[in-house]
Amino acid sequence: MKWIGAICIILATTWSGFEASRLLRERTKQLRQLKMALQSLEAEIMYGHTPLMDASLRLSQQLSRPLSWLFESFAHKLQKGTMNARQAWEESLHEVWKMTALKEGEFEIMKQFGETLGQYDHEIQQNYIRLTMVHLEREEGDAMEKQQRYERMMKSLGVLTGILIVLLLI
Amino acid sequence: MKAVFDLLPKGIVHAIQSLPIASQFTIEEIRIRIERPLEVIAGGRSYICPHVVQMGEGIELLNKLSQYSLYTIEEELKKGYITIQGGHRVGLAGKVIVEDGKVKAIRHITSFNIRMARQQIGMAVPLLPYLYDGRWLNTMIIGAPQTGKTTLLRDIARIVSSGVTDRRIAPQKVGIVDERSEIAGCVKGIPQFTFGYRVDVLDACPKAEGMMMMIRSMSPDVLIVDEIGSEADCTAILEAVHAGVGLFMTAHGRHMADVVKRPALRPIMEQAIFERFVELTNVGRPGTIQAIRDSHGRDIYRKMGVM
């Protein structure tokens, strides 16, 4: 009986350790994807003159989940036409953010980006996209550093904490 | 009508619907001015609604016109109007931003003028005996603004492209150079009016260049152009005539004499290229024919009408 309990505890803590390290890894990955998405959006705006709705629908097909949901929900909200682009963007962010590994810092950057969406001509719109990219790059650097430093540590920390608890309880 | 109502903010739609207008189809213009009452022009009369347009409604309308992406209508903002689904046009006015002496864009748009485009199918049929004589004669339609020049031109395009069986007029290829997106009212290049099958449209293309492009690449039998006026247009017209293409075009003016006086158009007039001049007036109602003249300026409208 005792041993089964001990194994359960170790499994649980190991799992949470792995989950924590996965989040660190996912964050860098998703940040990279977000940057790519913005790059495609820039191309759509600058060369395709595509309206936001069509552009984000296309983006949602290119991206993988959960980021594709962000653009999908944004496009659907615009299609309904009950709110403006800023509101639609913000609501989509709120909906999707919980499902991503991204943090508060990125949320603020993306929210600010939403304020500029569709309000300006090509040139200014491009400047805002570039600015957002620079901000995201900074976050990406931060995320990568954290990943390198903590990814393996989280895994071992999970296993070791489990063993510690088990030892204390025995 | 639905295309327009879909764009308008709800408050404005309600205001229009509660007007004492016989039918929504008589509406000619809807004028939206921010912080001023809404004006609707229907059946030649102006109605002022009690509804005062708010800033927010103006922004909402602009957002919907641009599909929430202002950058897609940059070119339109430069020209001052947007063509929407159904061929209707929205004219814009506000603060103009100038760069190098040219209009760059309109910001802070405070006036919208929605002009309802209406196709009057069959409007040009009574004119056929004057305009067709074994082939389509080169014709110039002359009229002041709002006299129905473009509407007439549109119907001529339709008739040429679909032909007339009772008069044994065979359908022919029509090329429309639509610099102001007014004749065909294209949305994403697709004409919004009924034209028959044999119509090719160069949308938003400068006239002079567009006419040459059409002749070179699309081999039209008849070219249709709106509002000629510059010298470059003239050169292109001369080219087109020598290429054996029939021409239909419009020019601003009240009478043929006004057009003859315009310096830029002198070369065409001197060479007597146009065989028919249709003068339109809006006395009575838009599209009323005042006179049809031949190349010598003789009025042949009634004379042939009796025949």
From TrEMBL, chain A:
This is Stage III sporulation protein SpoAB. Pfam families: Spore_III_AB. It comes from Anoxybacillus ayderensis.
UniProtKB/TrEMBL annotation, chain B:
Signal peptide: none annotated. It comes from the Bacteria. Coiled coil: none annotated. The keyword Cell wall biogenesis/degradation does not apply. Residues 135-279 form the AAA+ ATPase domain. InterPro entries: AAA+_ATPase (IPR003593), P-loop_NTPase (IPR027417), Spore_III_AA (IPR014217), Spore_III_AA_AAA+_ATPase (IPR045735). GO terms for molecular function: ATP binding. SMART domains: AAA. It holds the Pfam family Spore_III_AA. Keywords: ATP-binding, Nucleotide-binding. The keyword ATP-binding applies. This is AAA+ ATPase domain-containing protein. It comes from Anoxybacillus ayderensis. The lineage of its organism: Bacteria, Bacillati, Bacillota, Bacilli, Bacillales.
